[in-house]
Structure to design on (658 residues):
């Protein structure tokens, strides 16, 4: 068993990988660093306290005190020039000028300012004696899966599967070709299928570590859960890894130098980094582009991962995206086998 | 019963690349248990020839028979590969695998392979068993490459410039490895541009130039074809002005051939003890001053030079 060529080839693949500290970082460390940085930068704070300014003048302190009592507002008394400056630079959302009429000065294109105007107006109106005719109560809910980090983690997972699939396979194949190792193997009775399969097998071994590291980190640091089943996530990631391994094989099938294959990799990956909805929703692209965007393997993979992780979908509901991922992998692999340069 | 097929037989091999003819009609037969050397300068077509014989390059024309089999596609090719050991000129084995892991990988491809211990013993790398390939010296890497070729228990071993770039000690260690393989009954085809190596290891050599065999025979018979066993080289301090003519030199006793060179003149000589005093006498009469005088036993290099007018290294 241990001396089976497939086992030995796979072991060689794995050893070459884990003895390369840089490869470890890019596969395991980098996505976690990225998730951490983006998760912190875009964490959902809510609107928080809105700061409003009251212009100095008759009745200013009474008005400021009333505003300050309202939940979600803080109020400051400012001179005219200082108030203008702070309004212009966004340090206050709204400038209230006491008098009759009370004047609200704000930039209506800023969400915060419009919110502050509504809140401040309610305070002013009630202070002048308005009573609200309807009784209301608030019930606050936080829906899991609605934060940016919940969106980001499945996307990073997909992007990582693409990166390690393409690099892990493509780079090693081309390196073996430039070092004439491929030719040396061709001088033995080794079966070509064993050589190619060894890449797939070693990818699958590391895949579980990759997925576990990123999903585990998301859960530990940001409480990003998996609403669907872990088995579904596992199945999708295996499919995605195989598909990108096929694409990596295709990219590497002819290239003679590491430089050439690096260029090809970037050519393949760059559009998907941007278009496939890893960092932001691809719904932002114009309608005319949507069919193209949705046909990309990373888009389909990200959609499927998000459906399971965020919406709790089952595999059976994901026929379309999984079909796209499978088709890319199969076609790439078949074409790669036809055109592969073995020496 | 017909005698067993020779390990290597090829006829009319031709291989043309875009702008050069690498092999231009080559016939060779290598016999069982023979160590056969392809000797020639860089670019003579040695590597193309050996890779055609190894079934790694397809010839444009010509026939190849290895151990009585032909290179076709499919399972017969795999059966043939089981019986060969191949070391390629420029393979770089994976640097981050250990010696043992590398050998184990290669042995997994063969059905009747040596054990790791055996093959490391054959090449004397037992102590480097757990070292990374990247940490080995040039000579050790080369012995590992040969170990990967020997691991299949081959009947026929192909070595493409196995000692190029190695220091003399590493070279001798590899020669010993090859010697042990031959002592165990193996057949070897090797390429080299070191004449000393060919003389030392090979039963027969084919001297190649521009894709053709220009001389074939035992090292001894090729050297004997020069008609003399020694070479006397000399150079003059004041250049060509007072140099004797080739005709004068050829007339000296014991001199069989004269080869004027760029910086020195070489005489092929049957009897050094007569030729050298005569040469010194001639130069003294002309008032020419020697800047160099050297004699050596004639080598395959001298055979190559006499056939092509060029040296192996700088041809």
């Amino acid at each position: 068993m241990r001396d089976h060529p497939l086992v030995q080839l796979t072991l060689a693949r794995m050893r070459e990988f884990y003895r390369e500290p840089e490869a470890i970082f890019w596969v395991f460390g980098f996505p976690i660093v990225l998730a951490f940085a983006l998760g912190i930068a875009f964490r959902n704070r809510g609107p928080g306290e809105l700061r409003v300014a009251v212009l100095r003048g008759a009745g200013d302190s009474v008005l400021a005190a009333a505003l300050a009592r309202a939940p979600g507002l803080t109020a400051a008394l400012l001179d005219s020039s200082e108030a203008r400056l702070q309004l212009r630079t966004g340090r206050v959302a709204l400038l209230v000028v006491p008098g009759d009429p009370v004047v609200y000065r704000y930039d209506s294109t800023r969400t915060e300012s419009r919110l502050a105007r509504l809140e401040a107006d309610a305070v002013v109106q009630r202070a002048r004696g308005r009573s609200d005719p309807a009784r209301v109560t608030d019930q606050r809910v936080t829906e899991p899966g609605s934060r940016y980090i919940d969106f980001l983690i499945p996307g990073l997972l997909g992007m990582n599967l693409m990166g390690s699939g393409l690099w892990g396979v493509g780079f090693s194949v081309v390196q073996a070709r430039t070092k004439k190792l491929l030719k040396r193997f061709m001088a033995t009775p080794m079966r070509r299928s064993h050589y190619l399969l060894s890449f797939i097998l070693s990818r699958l071994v590391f895949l579980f570590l990759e997925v576990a590291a990123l999903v585990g980190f998301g859960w530990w640091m940001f409480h990003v859960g998996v609403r669907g089943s872990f088995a579904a996530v596992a199945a999708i990631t295996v499919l995605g890894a195989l598909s990108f391994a096929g694409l990596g094989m295709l990219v590497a099938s002819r290239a003679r130098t590491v430089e050439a294959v690096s260029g090809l990799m970037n050519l393949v990956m760059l559009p998907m980094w941007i278009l496939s909805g890893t960092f932001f929703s691809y719904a932002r692209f114009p309608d005319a582009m949507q069919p193209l965007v949705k046909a990309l393997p990373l888009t389909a993979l990200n959609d499927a991962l998000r459906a399971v992780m965020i919406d709790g979908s089952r595999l059976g509901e994901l026929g379309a995206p999984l079909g796209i991922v499978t088709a890319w992998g199969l076609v790439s692999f078949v074409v790669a086998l036809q055109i592969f340069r073995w020496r | 019963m017909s005698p067993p097929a020779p390990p290597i037989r090829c006829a009319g091999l031709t291989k043309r690349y875009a702008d050069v003819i690498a092999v231009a009609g080559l016939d060779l037969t290598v016999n069982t248990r023979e160590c056969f050397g392809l000797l020639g300068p860089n670019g003579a077509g040695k590597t193309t020839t050996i890779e055609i014989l190894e079934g790694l390059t397809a010839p444009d024309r010509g026939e190849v028979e290895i151990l009585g089999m032909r290179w076709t596609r499919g399972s017969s090719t795999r059966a043939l590969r089981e019986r060969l050991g191949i070391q390629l000129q420029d393979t770089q084995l994976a640097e981050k695998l250990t010696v043992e892991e590398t050998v184990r990988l290669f042995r997994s491809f063969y059905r009747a392979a040596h054990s790791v211990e055996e093959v490391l013993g054959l090449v004397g790398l037992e102590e480097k068993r757990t070292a990374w390939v990247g940490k080995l010296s040039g000579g050790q890497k080369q012995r590992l490459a040969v170990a990967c070729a020997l691991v299949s228990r081959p009947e026929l071993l192909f070595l493409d410039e196995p000692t190029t770039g190695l220091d003399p000690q590493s070279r001798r260690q590899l020669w010993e490895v090859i010697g042990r393989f031959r002592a165990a009954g193996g057949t070897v085809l090797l390429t080299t541009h070191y004449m000393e190596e060919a003389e030392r290891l090979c039963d027969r050599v084919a001297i190649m130039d521009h894709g053709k065999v220009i001389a074939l025979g035992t090292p001894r018979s090729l050297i004997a074809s020069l008609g003399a066993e020694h070479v006397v080289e000399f150079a003059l301090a004041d250049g060509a002005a007072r140099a004797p003519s080739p005709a004068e030199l050829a007339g000296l006793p014991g001199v069989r051939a004269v080869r004027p060179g760029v910086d020195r003149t070489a005489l092929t000589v049957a009897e050094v003890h007569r030729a050298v005093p005569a040469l010194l006498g001639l130069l003294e009469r002309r008032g020419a001053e020697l800047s160099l005088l050297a004699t050596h036993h004639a080598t395959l290099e001298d055979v190559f030079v006499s056939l092509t007018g060029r040296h192996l290294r700088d041809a």
Observations:
- The first strand of chain B starts at residue 8 and ends at 16.
